[in-house]
Specification:
single chain, alpha/beta, Rossmann fold, 7-stranded parallel sheet, 8 helices
Length: 249
């Protein structure tokens, strides 16, 4: 039985991916900052662990408790939407600490076992916003684009050890709690600068015009992650969701 460790499994893409892999008969190690057993179906193949990807001790403890794994899914992340001018540097640091440095730290933590076994897959969940510049997403996009670049280079280093690096690029998923969490974070830091009101209005208007068939659903991301984990011939970058597929061309 193969084992997958998923970060950020308390909601959205991570939670859906944990359920998907359980249904496929895998052992799932679902990690989250505040562990909750009630959000996943009871299973002898399920382990739930506390993990803060910005904390080195938390990472070490979680990886040790998980035991040998076959696939790491770096899904934990925080969202942000604002003009550069409306983004405090403390927020920039928080976003990069989780989205970028947390992904790198988790990858470093599992690579020794993958390299020694000459087998393993690291799947980094980034975003389709890295495929096309969009207003108000400069900092978030930068944090995810850095992960894309990190993955590209790490893949070259790890190829001789039969360790695969993959990127899954979801589109906009309004049904998940990701956007709500981002909005509350924006309000905590003063909201959008008044000078950018017209830009904000145009961005939200464009989103309102998206139909149900033109957005990303959590199931799309789970299926893309499954493909990345199980199909060695899959491309390094896999868009997930109708809008992401359209952007990827």
């Amino acid at each position: 039985m193969k084992t997958v460790l998923i970060t950020g499994a308390s909601s959205g893409f991570g939670l859906e991916t944990a359920k998907f892999f359980l249904e496929k008969g895998w052992r799932v190690v679902a990690t989250m900052r505040n562990p909750r057993a009630d959000i996943l179906p009871p299973s002898e193949n399920l382990g739930i662990l506390a993990l803060d990807v910005t904390d080195a001790v938390s990472i070490r403890n979680a990886v040790e408790a998980a035991g040998p794994i076959d696939v790491l899914v770096n899904n934990a992340g925080i969202g942000w939407l604002n003009a550069v001018e409306g983004t405090p540097m403390e927020v920039v640091r928080d976003i990069f600490e989780t989205n970028t440095l947390g992904t790198i730290a988790m990858t470093q933590a599992v690579l020794p076992q993958f390299r020694e076994r000459r087998q393993g897959v690291v799947i980094n969940v980034t975003s389709s916003v890295t495929l096309m510049p969009l207003p108000l997403l400069s900092v978030y996009t930068a944090s995810k684009a850095a992960v894309n670049a990190f993955t590209d280079v790490a893949a070259l280093e790890l190829e001789p050890f039969n360790v695969r690096m993959k990127i899954v690029l979801p589109g906009r998923a309004p049904a998940t709690s990701f956007g709500d969490n981002a909005r509350s974070r924006i309000q905590e830091h003063g909201g959008f600068p008044e000078a950018y009101a017209s830009v904000v209005k145009s961005v939200f208007a464009a989103w309102e015009q998206q139909g149900e068939a033109d957005i990303t659903h959590a199931a799309d991301v789970a299926q893309a992650i499954w493909r990345a984990a199980t199909d060695p011939s899959s491309p390094m970058r896999i868009p997930a969701g109708a809008d992401a597929v359209a952007l990827a061309g």
